[in-house]
# Entry
Amino acid sequence: MKGKTKEIESRRRIARIAGLACAVISFSLIACAAYTGDALGYALGLAGLVLSVHEMQTYLTYGEIARLDALLPKEAPPGGDGDG
# Structure
C-alpha cells in the first residue's frame, strides 16, 4: 500500500505542476495576443487553459483516490469474507 500511495502522490504532483505551467503559458499567450491582435495566439491560449483545467481535474481526482485508498482496510478482517 505504501508504494501505491507514493505513486499516487507522485502523479498528483506532476499533474499540479503541469496544470500550473499550462496556466502560466496560456495567460502569457493571451496577453501577447491581446497586445498584437493575433487570433492564433488567442486560440492557443484558450486551448492551453482547457489543458490546464484538465490537469487540475486530474490533480483533484488523484487526491480523491488517495483519500479513498486511505479509508480501505489494510488487511482482511479475521474470519474470512464475512458471510458467516
User: Anything to note?
Assistant: The chain has one domain: 2-67.
